[in-house]
Amino acid sequence: MNNNNQEIHLKKEVLERIIRAFFSRDFKENVRLIPFDMRPKGSKVLYRCCIYKERAVLKDRVIAGLGFAIEDDDKAIDLSNYAQEALERKKPEENPLAVVEAACKGCVPRRIYVTDLCQGCVANLCSKSCKFGAISIIGGKSVIDSSKCKNCRMCITACPYNAIVKITVPCEDACPVDAIKKNENGTAQIDYKTCIYCGKCIMSCPFGAVHEKSQIIDVLKNIVFCKRVIALLAPSIVGQFTGNIYQLKSAIIKAGFSDAYEVAQGADATTINEAREFKERIKSGETFITTSCCASYYQLIKKHLPEAKPFFSNTNTPLYYIAKKVKSEHKDAIVVFISPCVSKKKEAQENGNVDYVINYEELMALFNVKDIEVQDCKEEKFDIESSRQGRGFGVTGGVVSAVSKLLEGKDLARPYVINGLNKETIKQLKRIVKDKKCAEGNLIEVMGCEGGCVGGNATVCASKVAGEAIKVFLEKSEDIVEK
Question: If you average pLDDT over residues 175-202, what whole number do you get?
Fold first, then answer.
């Protein structure tokens, strides 16, 4: 929601309506009515061909908001049935992403294309620039054979009339591992076997066709059933809401949670263990290690870059350490991670100490429904204050800065940051791993999102603004002390 566009507002409204329906006297009926309440009879058609298409899109958004796969929807199934299933569900669905088929515009195929601006010039610079023989001159115009084209863009550069363009498909272009493509019906489809859950497709689609499946109903059920529900706040949450972290803790408790912990406390444990591991591995002769708290990087290594595994840190993430601590102290508690992105849902599935994940968008929707203003809440301190270094994990360079702090005067750590996963940085990682050395450094931090977790797909504040707020907060925090 850090992008101010209409599809973001639609998502926000749907989330709030689902939450309001949950707290109403008739959850199922009020969920069923959401598309009709948002687009009543006679209302102006804003985005689609007709009101029925707009309602169909809204229905799919509600299904995702209830936590279900839209692709499997039988159009005859009523939303009230999905609402009932959400109430009865024991655990969230495995794959946290879904595509709203009704919202997907079915973009034309991604390719290099010759427009009508082509003048059929005598020089034929475009065909001469192509090393693959993909361009022919037919009827005095350039024509590209897509079966031969390698998308090198040399013809685009060569054309003096700018007559050749690259037709892009936003979600496909944004995906760093080519995990999303159009199916036989021309709509986007995610290959979960190759997806690394980075959320870039969510942020890039101008139609809002890629959705994160929400677990908000699962969390609210446990709150209403008077379970002890504890929130774990990611370091990047600082600056996302008006008010400070202590007011945010108070607001979360006011919303129904029993307590809240900083995941930065777990980051302190990660920092200490990471520093020890780094010293041992460098002393044993290794030239570098890569470190990351990003679940997308874990998925990248697992699915696309297994050769990088020997160079990957064995230290656990901050979420692992804090969730383990909370579960040991409160064995019957329901643990909910408050996340800036979709990738942490995959990590949570592999961590028995984390029950659910909701994101910043969903937390904001809950605050709005409950009429909670964070800046108006009293401050509530944490039992244990996290360090400056642990609280800095939410921005690029935070991990390596923290580890380097503990290595000052002891070992030579040369930090280097790969700021966001994309096709180019993945190629860079592959080269580093292949060469078994990195000229830029020996402690390499890999962040899935540019700028760090503050750039996650479900943040509610511009990454630069949030990053500045974190810097101010760090100045008020104490340095880490190795125990």
Answer: 93
Which amino acid is present at 343?
Answer: S
Average pLDDT, the chain: 93
Give the closest residue to 220 by CA, choosing from 196, 244, 193, 255. Answer: 255
- Give strand pairing partners of 290: 312, 444
Q: Hey, what are 216's tokens?
A: 């908000």
Q: Which residue in 199, 166, 167 sits closest to 180, CA to CA?
A: 199
Interatomic CA distance for residues 4 and 26, integer angstroms: 32
In a 10 Å sphere around its CB, with 0-12 CB exposed, 13-18 middle and 19+ buried, how is residue 254 labelled?
A: middle
DSSP calls for 172-189? HHH-TT--EEE-TTSSEE
Long-range Cβ contact pairs of 435-441 (< 8 A, separation 24 or more): 436/287, 436/311, 437/287, 437/288, 438/287, 438/288, 440/414, 440/416, 441/288, 441/414, 441/415, 441/416
- Paired tokens of 25: 């006297």
Burial class (CB in 10 A: 0-12, 13-18, 19+), 314: exposed
Q: pLDDT tens-digit profile of 317-355? A: 999 999 999 999 999 999 999 999 999 999 999 999 999
What are the tokens at 429?
A: 């990682």
Return d(Cα 83, Cα 73) in angstroms, integer.
13
The answer to whether the pTM exceeds 0.85 is yes
- Report strand pairing: 443-447 vs 289-291: parallel
Residue at 198: amino acid letter: C
Contacts of 359 (CB under 8 A, 6+ apart): 212, 338, 339, 340, 341, 342, 456, 458
Reported as a single tens digit per residue, the pLDDT across 420-434 is 999 999 999 999 999
Q: Is the dihedral angle over the CA atoms 46, 204, 12, 219 positive or is it negative?
A: positive
The closest of 175, 187, 171 to 60, measured between CA atoms, is 187
| Residue-wise pLDDT tens digits, 394-403 | 999 999 999 9
Reported confidence tier of residue 185, pLDDT bands at 50, 70, 90: confident
Residue 172 CA from chain centroid, whole number: 16
Q: How confident is the model at residue 5 (pLDDT cuts 50, 70, 90)?
A: low
Three-class SS of 2-24: CCCCHHHHHHHHHHHHHHHHHCC
Q: CA-CA distance, 313 to 323, in Å (whole number)?
A: 20
* Pairing mode, strands 180-182 and 141-144: unpaired
Residue 430 in tokens: 């592959």
Paired with 13 in beta bridges are none
Amino acid at 209: A
263 close to 387: Cβ distance less than 8 angstroms: no
| Inter-axis angle of helices 51-65 and 79-88, nearest 10 | 0
Phi, psi of 10 (to 5 degrees): -65, -45
CA nearest neighbour of 368 among 31, 16, 34:
16
